Amino acid sequence: MAEGLLEIKNLKTSFRIKDNYYAAVDDVSITVNKNEVLAIVGESGCGKSALAFSIMGLHNRAKIEGNILYKGHDIANISPAKLNKLRGNDMAMIFQDPLTALNPLMEIGDQIGEIVSLHNKNLSKSERKAKVIKLLNKVGIPHPERTYKQFPHELSGGMRQRVVIAIAIANEPELLIADEPTTALDATIQSQILDLLNELKEDMNAGIILITHDLGVVAETADRVAVMYAGQIVEIADVHTLFGDPQHPYTRSLLNSVPNAAKDQTKLHVIQGIVPSLQKLPREGCRFGPRIPWIDSSAHEDNPVLHEISPGHFVRCTCYSQFSFPEESKEDQSHGVS
Amino acid sequence: MGFLEVEDLKVHFPIKGGIFGRTVDYVKAVDGVSLSIEKGKTYGLVGESGSGKTTTGRAIMGLNNITAGKITFDGYDITDLKQAELDVRKQIQMIFQDPYSSLNPKKRVLDIIAEPLRNYEKLSKIEEKKRVQELLELVGLSPESIVKYPHEFSGGQRQRIGVARAIALKPKVIIADEPVSALDVSVQAQVLNFMRDIQEELDLTYLFIGHDLGVIRHMCDHIGIMYKGRYVEQGTTEEIFNSPQHIYTKRLVAAIPDIDPSQRKKQIQFRQEVQTEYEQSYNEYFDSDGLAFKLKPVSKTHLVALPEVE
């Protein structure tokens, strides 16, 4: 039975720009369970990374409001010292670019060993090495003894990302946050890394937050999915519902804009307009409204909230019930299905 | 005879070593690539990072020195661009990957798009402005944009400015090096649609370099798959995706994420089968240096790098 590991309630992360605070993450509430991958998907600037950084306490100057409950304890705005005890031990993060996440001047073995001994002070040298080799084995590095003595530049991108993952799981965290872990990697390596994440989830009974913009990655890895747009979650559902029966106009538009071999599209769907910048975000009404101008304004709520339309399936704003694609792309769609 | 032909192209970079900085070896970035693109078609060049796909594109553009081989464009030999008619350079243009770094931030849109015009055509200021505004309209940006700077545009709009610059001289061939890799999916859709539109309108021929097989499948008529500077397979889009013959291609196709989560188990199993086959038959498909063999035809359009049968 799944159990709540991380519970975020009404989180609001704001940044100061010229004496005003602007919320990059606005009223986000999510739960992550053990042995579960929650994917957070959205385009650049939607606040998905800002959300991850808030959980890990990596924002320096942001104003964080709301609750981040880790196993029932609120970790929003706790002291760095307390946070340091949690980070690495209980929760860890995998970053996008494995080359910049590693120290170029340190051998792989020492980099992982450093983390191992940081949280496990009385290990002997040989014990430490044994543990590092075991970790390298676990993340599927073919010659751990050799890799132990190598530097990051001697490894390929995929191998480096495995090292980064080894560091993240060194102390068996229960919560793992992966921020675009495969974006910098080739397709064949991407699928290997995703398989590895899935294995780790089951092995360690961990909860994983997977942040990505790639809907294919989501479909292959996630158990539940939260779609973010302009700082808010617009739809949240289990992965089968989200891909099989998406409701929010943004989710549906996104799914339609990806080239899909199953459909014979001559034209891809294009979302009108552009993502508003942080300072120009509409603070009232449906934030996606301006991008679907053909939908009557009465379809939107004044203060859109998440509605539970079936168990576990939440959609923000009422506009979804009246949404349809404009004529032109509708044609494309029907053409694709037939 | 294709519109753009590349025959046995080789681009080798010297490795300098020793105290005198002598050339000790070569990196064979492109090692015997041949391709042929018909007029008005899109040819996809696919490979993982370091496979030599970008180097191939840059060599055709004349941005890399060619070690050996021959490039012909519309029947003219353009291998050595310095000797070729200057006019040829106008005919082949390039769209770059990153719209954030390929536009000079200190220049106005007018100057960015007018730069190729200033190089090749002597226009008066008024004519030039008019042409740039026409181009902007063609790529779906307002003519008033000419006085703006790149940072005032979104990613998709910037890529359109890059395209406007590329088509300013009315080229016949466009080499697009990962034109949508740096863009979000909704913006990507916009740029891909638009590239198709102008292809029809201006009868353009594309060499589309990319690693995202979903995008390649959507855009291309023919595909070449590169690995370590050599071709492993070449064929029509259908042949490559529906009946890949080389184990490397099979593995690439298997790695495409499936957007349907109900297929997840099947997909993982399929991928493991392909991976096992890849490991077991690696020696059959690659020579002792881990390189691909010479291409052999399996059908009129479909070529696969298979070893000589003795």
TrEMBL record, chain A:
Keywords: ATP-binding, Cell membrane, Membrane, Nucleotide-binding, Transport. The keyword Cell membrane applies. SUPFAM superfamilies: P-loop containing nucleoside triphosphate hydrolases. It is found in: Cell membrane. GO terms for cellular component: plasma membrane. It is a peripheral membrane protein. The keyword Repeat does not apply. PROSITE patterns: ABC_TRANSPORTER_1 (PS00211), ABC_TRANSPORTER_2 (PS50893). One of its GO terms (biological process) is peptide transport. It comes from the Bacteria. Residues 6-255 form the ABC transporter domain. GO terms for molecular function: ATP binding; ATP hydrolysis activity. Belongs to the ABC transporter superfamily. This is Peptide ABC transporter ATP-binding protein. It comes from Virgibacillus oceani. The gene is oppD.
UniProtKB/TrEMBL annotation, chain B:
GO terms for biological process: peptide transport; transmembrane transport. InterPro entries: AAA+_ATPase, ABC_transp_ATP-bind, ABC_transporter-like_ATP-bd, ABC_transporter-like_CS, Oligopep_ABC_C, P-loop_NTPase. It comes from the Bacteria. SMART domains: AAA. CDD domains: ABC_NikE_OppD_transporters. The keyword Translocase does not apply. Signal peptide: none annotated. Residues 4-253 form the ABC transporter domain. GO terms for molecular function: ATP binding; ATP hydrolysis activity. PROSITE patterns: ABC_TRANSPORTER_1, ABC_TRANSPORTER_2. Keywords: ATP-binding, Nucleotide-binding, Transport. The keyword Transport applies. Belongs to the ABC transporter superfamily. This is Peptide ABC transporter ATP-binding protein. The lineage of its organism: Bacteria, Bacillati, Bacillota, Bacilli, Bacillales.
